[in-house]
Structure formats: structure tokens, C-alpha cells
Amino acid sequence: MMASSYTAKEEDGHHSGSAAAGGPGSSKSKKPDNTAFKQQRLPAWQPILTAGTVLPAFFVIGLIFIPIGIGLFVTSNNIREFEIDYTGVDTNSPCNRCSQTYSWNISCTCSVPFSLEQPFESNVFMYYGLSNFYQNHRRYVKSRDDSQLNGDKSSLTNPSKECEPYRISEKKPIAPCGAIANSLFNDTLELYYIYPNGSRTLIPLVKKGIAWWTDKHVKFRNPPGNNDNLTITFQDTTKPVNWHKPVYELDPNDPDNNGFINEDFIVWMRTAALPTFRKLYRIIQKNKDNMTPTLPRGNYSLEIAYNYPVRSFDGRKRMILSTISWMGGKNPFLGIAYITVGSVCFFLGVVLLIIHHKYGNRNNNADIPN
Amino acid sequence: MLRRRINLLFGGDEKRVDSRTIYVGHRPCPATEAFIPPKFCDNRIVSSKYTIWNFLPKNLFEQFRRIANFYFLIIFLVQVIVDTPTSPVTSGLPLFFVITVTAIKQGYEDWLRHKADYEVNKYPVIVLEDGRSIRKESEKIKVGDIVEVVEDETFPCDLILLQSTRDDDTCFVTTASLDGESNHKTHYTVPDTEKDLQSLNATIECEQPQPDLYKFVGRMHIYKTDQEPAVRSLGPENLLLKGATLKNTKKIYGVAVYTGMETKMALNYQGKSQKRSAVEKSINAFLLVYLCILISKAVVCTTLKYVWQSQDGQDEPWYNEKTQKEKDTYVYLKMFTDFLSFMVLFNFIIPVSMYVTVEMQKFLGSFFITWDKDFFDPEIQEGALVNTSDLNEELGQVEYVFTDKTGTLTQNNMEYIECCIDGFQYRNSDSMSELDGFCVTDGPVSKLQQKAGRDKEELFLRALCLCHTVQVKEAGPDEIDSDQVDGLVSELSQPDEQRGFIASSPDEVALVKGAMKHGFTFLGLENKSMKIRNRENNVELYDLLHVLNFDPVRRRMSVIVRSKSGETLLFCKGADSSIFPRVRQEEVDRIRMHVERNATEGYRTLCVAYKQLSPEEFAVADAGLRDARLALQDREEKLMAVYNQVETSMSLIGATAVEDRLQEEAAETMEALQGAGMKVWVLTGDKMETAKSTCYACRLFQRGTELLELTVRTLEDGGRKREERLHELLLDYHKKAVQDAPPVKAGVTRSWSTANQEYGFIIDGATLSLVMNPSPDTNSSRYKSLFLQICQNCTAVLCCRMAPLQKAQIVKMVKNSKGSPITLSIGDGANDVSMILEAHVGIGIKGKEGRQAVRNSDYAIPKLKHLKKLLLAHGHLYYVRIAHLVQYFFYKNLCFILPQFLYQFFCGYSQQPLYDAAYLTMYNICFTSMPILAFSLLEQHIAIEYLLDNATLYREIAKNAMLKWGPFLYWTVLGIFQGLLFFFGVKYLFSNPALQDNGQVFGNWSYGTIVFTVLVFTVTLKLALDTRHWTWINHFVIWGSLAFYVFFSFFWGGIIWPFLKQQRLYFVFANMLSSVSAWLVIILLILLSLLPDILLMVFRKPRGPHARQMKRRLPSSGTSTIFMLSQTTSTHSFSWSD
């Protein structure tokens, strides 16, 4: 790729005549060592970038990047994604009532009908998305106690100062403490397929496998004690202010998904990078027979237990259904970027080629100054 | 022996009024009414700066006085006090590291000093007390103690020599540890003191301590029981300095006059003033720019934060309530702390580590100079010496070179060539067989084969034998091989007399040897009488009555002797300009011709004159001299007046010519320097003709050079007032050299272009002082600027007849001229010290004139020829390296911090850091520091040989070219471009944070980690692209750093760290690597951010030896060499070639 010359400058072993004339006393004199390093003569590789050498590199990059880009673009386009906003800002939207008569205690349900134009094959991932929600705000990000979440007994009863003002409630330590935990997303989403005849069936949603494996198994741990009865473990603590139920009742049916190791909770605790984000909510497993699509085209109804207020800060709530490829969710950016960069490289290669051929020789001659 | 040269460094503080009185042996004196034992400091030497108790506070205080350290301390304190986004550790740890390392280094150095002090202070000495010798520790010596010193011991304090075991009341001393001169100097006992020191009753009055090693004035009152108190003058010849060593003398007794910190050695210990390099100034300028960027970033963020918060529900949404404390805080205070928080968040843009790296680069880099075997001189068995590493890069920026002539351009290895007696020329034949082997060569005017009268001849030769301060070295068998430095010549024509001559000036030795060749041998000085052997092998004795020392102002020296026949004679020798006005004018013309002819051939000439003193005249002179010597104040001035009075109306008897050969490769070196665009100025005390011929020999002046002369001679041509003539000439020359010269094209090489007329300028000391300090009525400043403009348009400038202070004056004038060019002074003698200290870079040559220049220099090299490599190769490389280092550091921190700044727009201006604290801390310390350090030590963008062969390459980096605003802007734009790319590239990727193939999403720490990974790789690979010289170290460090980053990230994220409050990065890096999209975006962004650089590199003119091979060598040397040979038509051509 690069023109390079390997000029191994060997140490010149010849001592100049005058140095030798220094006599026998010179051996212990302050004469500098004649080593390659000290004489700045280490063998060195001296690459030079010229039009001629970079040229093939540009072509190669172009030739590699454009196919990758096309591959990415196609992959991204093949990903099915459906997004629906259920915030209820519009007066005629089904959740408008819920969003307005909001109170933490009263659960409000609404259902949003939608239809899928195309069937969703393979596993379908259900996300909830929030907008204008600053999960990356500094006050928010630091408001957690990881050692409490890791099951540390002393942190359980004495949470970190960082959790303020969500540290102590009613003179009892909050578990899990902090603003992040306190604002856990608590809408419940259920999906019904509506048969053409009007009857509907609940689509099974899997709530495991949505959090990072390491988070679920190492980073988050329930406090030691009776694992079957988390109530006792958490007895000296209180629930976060905004929660309806304590942490040990997040999933009473499954002890592996209860308490701090509840996956919904873990997902929420991984703070998002940008104010508009999505988080994995449920997975819809593909059908065992593989014959029918996971979500066939047709009409669906999204049943929402509307608990989570966002309108106070101009937020939006979305539900997203998406299939996943090897590159993750749908994102045309990468494909376009690769195609662009590849083309630019290829174009530059052509330009360089022209320059190299047209001006290359003359350049060399014109090198003599003035 | 008295010093010939005045040390001008400390000159001028003679004005001390008060003196101190010392009671020898602490015995009260009858004359003084009351004996008050005076208080003086004890003999403890404290060179250490700290004690155990004050080390910490004092050292910390000194370190935080540095503006950069102070800045980081403030940042650290802000982090501790205010609730800031990053923990205090992130900036505290690097600061702590820097401070600790510096403190350890300084502490160690101080410990060494303590140890040395202890050794000196506890050294046992023998003190005479009440007739007994008592062993004492050196530190207990008090002023007035009589101290005994035996051979080869060093003097524990400054002593007045009272008694010596040598019969001639002298002792020999070497001051090698003081000024590096290893020759033996003779010191004299105070005359007529009693042999029994116990009964000596005397006081010494002397000046207060002052640092000049070669100045001392004092007076000794000796009280005898029944006589008037006798007064003896004391001079430097009576003073034995602490630190000097007694030689050739069994034992001496002396009385302590200055002790401890008041000794001249201790007073001289003060360090030199710090020189700052141009690069450092650039760094500070850039720092200011970045500080502005930093502050404006913080201001923008703070403003936007409050604008944003004023919207409904944004400041405190229900999910993110403030703590009670935050709610209570006063809003303006909150704004201020927000501002400080942003400052802290972005403070990494000015990294602590840059200072550390720059320091390390300079310190380690300077070793390459000491290690360079090309600088090793087999003759003196020494290589180059680096006294300060702060100026390495300045070597690559030199625009003006000021060089001394004697000993620098020339070897200062004097060889007697010929003499001229009474107008007849006597050239020394090579075969010195006959005793009167005068071989008279044909001078252009003198009569052939004729000699002066025999009387004149012998008078002249006697004058040569007597008028000097040379001493004969006794040929002790143990000393033959020991001291071979400084003017010692041990082998002479008479093999039976193994004698060497020791003199502080090699001219004198050459003259004495010259006289020897003509049959008059100087045998030595015994009991104040000089012995010479004349041609008839008879020994003649002369009483040495007075020595009127040489000094550079008078430029002559004299002796007054009395011959056996009772005649009192004054012999004087000196420069022609100082002798001619003092002799009878009719004699001058005959000799002037010879002198001038010799001078044009590049010889050093001295004129010899004599005068017979009548007893009355002598009595007057004797009294005058004695009075002046006893004077405590203004002794020098008084002596000078007497000297001038005595040395009048002499008869000129002849002149001598001594050859000073050119240094090896002097001409090549000068040519290379000129080729590199440097302007070479020769500043010499020598006379114009000699200096001019040396300049021709060095090819500073060439055939085409038109010489503009501004000397006393040209000034007196017109027969008008000097000022008028000066004005006229200056305007004339200015018109010629400045106005008529075609405008200099930038960067175009001038030295070989024949189209342009080249000018050389010659000025002498007298005229210079007219220019610099004109009489008040003339428009003074105009002369100076005219002079400067003319000089700047000349390729070479010769300033002759310069006093040492004038040399410094010239350097200062050029240094402070427009554009403040970088100046370099090179010299070898004490008279060059002032200009070495004045110039930006001072270079000392380890020559024959002692070590003063070396001690005061920034770099010392054995030979002039080494200057070429020092500047063209080392200087060039150091400059390129450090310039790249500085630019790179600012660049890499800009693209490090820019994403963090941009992130604020997406996190509600909440000062949320984008990167984890570990990354913030480690980025500059570990991940990106080593490659640039290795680069800045090893890079050779052009091979050293090639740099040496093509001096013009030096011009490419002239005027701080790589640190100008242009390149700075380029690097800044590059940093901004890459920072934008990193941030927005990853942001678009995160528009869908589901990046893993299992549908799971990434959070903010993954975002930061991806940006950071791209950043580390890009920044390191950018350096890899810039590296032209890949040694295994570069490979190791660059790839090692990247590997270390990956390894560290795995390790850091692989463990739940118990000491961390938040496990932010737990498995973030590993999860990132499991995502194909993340990989793809990392590769894409790295490539894209390097693309502009690659393109620029391709389109830029290719560099390096391969591309340059086509350049033919430019014709510069050939013609001038031939010219030189034709110029010096004399039989003695300059022997620079051997």
C-alpha cells in the first residue's frame, strides 16, 4: 500500500582515525558510546505517502466500503419496524383522557388500534420509546447506588448520598434509591391481534432476555437472605415514592425476575444516551412451526395501562415493534455512510489517478527550486 | 599570576563604600582604641535550598508559582469545593503525579547538595590558635583565623596568603574547580610579614565580599611594637580562593577574610537567569487561545442552560427533582458554580501532561547531544555539554550568529611567525640550527638581506624576553604529563632544558618562544629578578620592579626592570593602535607598513616599545604605582591613570607577528550557516585587518562582497567632524544596502544568487560607541536604526576592536530589533561571557582560554565545526519534534473535549461527562502520551546526513514556521473536524440504540465509549501517519498504546470495583465489541477522520531524501575557494584545510 524504503543504517564501525589516536587512555574517557540508539541511527522504516502509493488504497477502500454499505442498507431496509405514539396529545386520540386526568394512584387504561401492512417474520422486539426525557441529565445519571443494587447489605439500609432527594422516605431508606429507580417506566403494554371476525387474542410477550446478561447476573443482585421471601429481605426499606408497589413485588410470580434483578428494572437503570430513546420492553418469540409469521398483517390493538406521565415536560411515549438483524435495529445511517465514504474514496482514487498520470512526471522535474 | 582579562560579568560593582576590618589571629591592635570583635558569618556553606522541615511547604510553593501548576490547582480546588461533573481525582491525580515527580527530583538534587555541603563543612582543617595547631571542622573557621593548608588540599575559605614554605614567598594554585582553568597560578605572600605568625599583629582592611573572582582590593596594616604601622596593599594575587587547590607548595598559612556564604565561590554560585525559548512563548500564546475557547465554551453552555431551563417543565421534571440544597441556592451563585462546573468539565483541553511531556522531551532529548560521538573531540577527550535543556529547539531557529574570532574561528594556537625590528623584517626560518639564524625575507619594501643594528636587535629580543607575565614551569618528573592544558608548551628547541611556559595568554608564550628561536631564552623569575640567557650563553639578570598589567581597555602591558648596570627600563608591548600614539612619530611609519601587511595576512601583531627611565622619573612612577595599589577605592581608575602617565614618549623598536590558525572546518561551517540563512557577525577585539582577513579565510566575505566600512579611518577621511561624516556614511550605506537592494523575496535563498549584490559591513569599537551613544545633540536613535537596517541587509558583519561589553551591546541591539530574531553567541573566552549570556542561545567552546565561557553557556562544544551539526541537524530536528509535539497536544485535546462539549446540547446542559472518569484521567496520561513522546524523541523527518548536506533546509523552519498561526489553525480545524465527526457519527448511530443482534439497547456510557475508542485510535493513527521514521520503539509504543487501551478497557469493565461508587463501565466495552454496528462505525469514523490528512499529505510536496535526490547541489563553495587562494597570495596560505 505504501511505498517504503527500509534503510537499515548499520552502525558505522569505523572509528575515525583521530579518535583512535586518543591513545589507550581514551578507553575510559567520556567518549560517547557508539550505539545505534545514542547516535540516533536506529534502523527505521520510512514510509512515504505519495499519490502513487495511496491510489490503490483508495480504490481498495472504495471497493470494500461500497458493498458493505449496500449490504447494510439492504439489511436495514429489510428490517420491519412499526412505531406508534400513544401519548395522547391529540384530543381525539384514545389515550387523551388518560394523559389528562393523570394521578399516580388511579390506573387508567386505554387501547390504541393499529394495523400492520406487512407481516413481521422471526422474533419481534417490542420497545417503548420516550422523547424529551433527559435520562442523561447529570443529576439523574448519578442518582443511583450501584452497591445497593449489587446486594450490599449496608447500602440497602444506608443508601448513598447521591440518591438525594430519593434516598429516605418516611424515615426509611428507599430501595432502590435514586431518581432513576424512582422514575421507573410503569406503563403496562399488551398486544392483541384482532382477527378479521372481530375476536381478539393476546399475543404472548416474553419478558426475559431484555437486559444485558452481565447486568442481570453480576451487576444487579438481590440482598443476601431468603431468596424466596424478598419481603423479609427488604423489610427495613420502603418503596420509591412514585412506585405503586415495592421492589419485591415487581414480578411476584418469578423469583428470578423479582427485586433488583427484575429485567424491566435493569433495562430502565441503563440510562439512555440521548433524550429521545427506546428501551426493550418485551420479545415476541417467533412461532414454533416457523410457517406463519410472528406477527401477520392485520389489525392489532395495543392495550395500555397508562401510568406514566410525560406531558408535564412535553414528552412523548411510543411503542415500537421491530425485527432485528445482525446489525441490530433499523438504522439506514450506517449503510448510507458507508456507501458515501466508499464512493468518495473511489472518486478520489480516480482523481488521484488522473493527477498522477497527467502531472506525475512533470512534478519530478519541477522539483528543482528557483 | 595576574589575570589578563577582566571578568565583565560582575564588573561595575566596585562602588562599595564600606570595607571590613579583620584582626589577624583575633589579636587586638594597638592602634585601634577598642577591640570589637567584628561579626561575620561562619564558614558553613549552604548550597541546599531546603531543610527537612521546610521542604514540603517551600517546594510546593515554588511549584505552584508556575502558572500552569497553579491553574490546575485551581481546577482541582473547584472540583473539591463545587459539585462538579467529574470527581476531583480526575484532575487531582495527574497534578499530584506531576508535583510528586518534580518534588522527588528536586528533593533528590537537594539531598545531593546537602551531602556535598556536609562533606565540605565537616572537612577537617588546621587552625593556628595561641601558637598551637588545632584541628577543626571547616565550618568552624571564623574570619581572622589563621589557617594552615598543605599541598593538594583545597582552601576552606578565602584566605590572604601570609606565609608559604617556598623560598620565594609564592605558592601555586589551580582554580580548576572554580573556573576550569587547570594551569598553575602564582600567588604571593604579603610582603614583609614576619615569619613568626604568632607575633604578627596586623589588621586587614578589605572590601565587602563581591563575586568577581579576579578582583580584590585590600590593605594590611602591620603593627610592630616600636615602629610606625606598615601598610601593604593587597590584591587578587594575595587572595587564595575557596575551592582552589594548593599545588607545588608544601604548606601555606593564610588568614581567613571571607568565609562561608561570603566567599567568592559561594557568591558565584547563583544560577544564571532563565532563558525561555520561542517555542515556549508559542505554547503560551496557544494556551491563551485555548483558554479563550474553554471560557467561551463554558459561557455558551451556562447561558444556554438557563435559556433552556426557563422553558416549562425542563428545569425540574417530576422524575428528576433537585435536592433541597440545590433549591435553596441563590440563583446567581448557582450560575457561577455552573460556569465553574463547565470549566472543570472542559478543562482537559489544557492538559497537565503537556507540560510534563514537553519537559521530558527536552530533558531526554538533550541527551542525544551529549551522546553524539561526532561532537567528541579526541584531543581534550570530551564531548558536547548541555547546561540547559530548555533551549534545544531554539537551536533550530537561529537567525543571527555572533562569533568570537580568537579561539573560535581561529585555533588560538599561536605560532610565532616573524618580527620586524626597526623596519627590517626577520622571518623565522624553519631550520633553527644557527643561533642567530635570521633569515631575512624580502618584504615588499624593506631592503634585501639587511638587518637592523645589533643593538636594536638585542634590545628588541630582550624586550620580548622581559615584557610578559609568563612563568617557567619547573620540570618536576611528576608533572610532565599532568597539566597539559592552557598554554603549556613543554618541548622546546633545547632538549636539555625540559621547560614549559605557562601563561594565561598563548600570545605571550609564542613570543617568548619566538625570542628563544632568536637566541634569547627566558629562564624564569627568581626573587623578583628575571633571568634570561643571551646569545652568548651568558645569563643576564634584571630586577623586576613593576608589572603594568594587560587589560583590554589599554590593550598593552609593560614591565619596569632594572638591569645589572643600573639602568631602569620600561618595556611595553601592545596593539599598534595603543602603542603608536605613545611613541615618537618618526619611528612609526617604518613599522606601520609591516604591521599592516602582517595584519592583512591574518597574523596577530604586537608592537614593542621601550623607554629608559631616569631615576627621577622612576621615583615618580614608583610612588604613583604604590599609591594607586594601596587605594581602597577606585583602585583600577587610579592605576590606569598612573599607567597612562608612565607609558608615554617611548621609542618603538619593533613589531611581532603571530599566526593564529583557523579552526578545523571553520570555513565550511560558516558557509553552511550562511547557507542556512543565518547571518554571521564576527565580534572581535582584534584589529580590523586581521579580522578582515580571517573573515575572508572563513568565506564570510567573498569576492563579490562589497565591503561597507565604518571605522575610525573612514570617518577621518573627510577631514570633517566625526559625527557629520558618520551621518553621511550611514545614509550613504543605507541607500546602497537597503533602499537600492531589490526587495527580498520571502524564503528565497540569497547567498549564492549572483544577481544580487552582497554587502559586508565592518565597524570598529570606537565608531560603534559613536553609533550607540552619540552626543546628545544629534538625532541619536536614528543612527542606531540606520545601522541596524544596514547590518540586517548584509550577509556578514564584522565588528572589530570590540570591548567585551560592546559585544553584548550588539547582541542586545539585534535581539531587541524588529521581529526579535533569535540570536546565538559562540565564544571560548572570558571576554565572550557577556555576549553568551545575552544571546538567546549561548554556546561555549571548550577552548584554551579557560572554562568561563563553557560555564556560562547553554551548550558547550569542543570545536567550532560541531556548530554545524548542532544547528543544522540537532536544532532542526528538535524544533520539528517539539513543534509537532505542541501542535499535536493541543489537537488531540481539542478533539477529545469537543464531543463532550457537544454532548451538553443533548443532556440538558447538565455537565454530564461523555466519557467515564477513568477515560478522562487516563487519556492524556496513558493512552496517548507515549507515542507522542517517542515521536518527539526519535523522529527524523529528514535524515541527519541529508540535513547536514543541505543547509537550505534550515530555512524551511525559520521564524518559528511550524508554530505560526497558520499551522496552528490547520491543527485546530483538524481537531474540530474530527471532534464533530466523532460525536455526530456516533449520534446518528444512536438514533436507534438497539445495536446488538439480540435487540438489547446501549446506554450513554456505551455512547461515550464508542466515541472514546474512535478518538484514541484516530489520534494515535494520526501520529502514525505523521511519523516518517519508524524505529522499533515507535512501533512498540504506538501499537502498544492501542493494545493497552483495549486491554485496559476490558479490565476496567470486567470487574465490579469495590472502591467505585458507580459501576458505569461494567462490561460496556465488551458489549460494544459484540455489536457489529459499533465495529463498523468505529472503522468508518477512523478512516473518515484521517482522510483529509492523507489527502493533504499526498498533495503536498513530497519530503524526505527520496524526493529530494533530484536536487543538485547548489554551487556555493567552489568559486569562493579558488578566490580565497588568490586572495591570500602570501606564502602562508591559511591552513584550514589540514
TrEMBL record, chain A:
Q: Which GO terms describe its cellular component?
A: apical plasma membrane; endoplasmic reticulum; Golgi apparatus; transport vesicle membrane
Annotated region Disordered: where? 1-36
Query: What are the TM regions of this chain, as residue ranges?
Result: 48-74, 333-355
Q: Does the keyword Metal-binding apply?
A: no
- Keyword Disulfide bond attached: yes
An example Gene Ontology biological process: phospholipid translocation
Q: How does it sit in the membrane?
A: Multi-pass membrane protein
Keywords annotated in UniProt: Cell membrane, Cytoplasmic vesicle, Disulfide bond, Glycoprotein, Golgi apparatus, Lipid transport, Membrane, Transmembrane, Transmembrane helix, Transport
Lineage: superkingdom: Eukaryota
**Alphabetical list of Pfam families matching this protein:** CDC50 (PF03381)
**Intracellular or extracellular location(s):** Apical cell membrane; Cytoplasmic vesicle, Secretory vesicle membrane; Golgi apparatus; Membrane
InterPro entries reported for this sequence: CDC50/LEM3_fam
Q: Which family does the record assign?
A: Belongs to the CDC50/LEM3 family.
| The name this protein goes by in its record | Cell cycle control protein
* Taxonomic source organism: Astyanax mexicanus
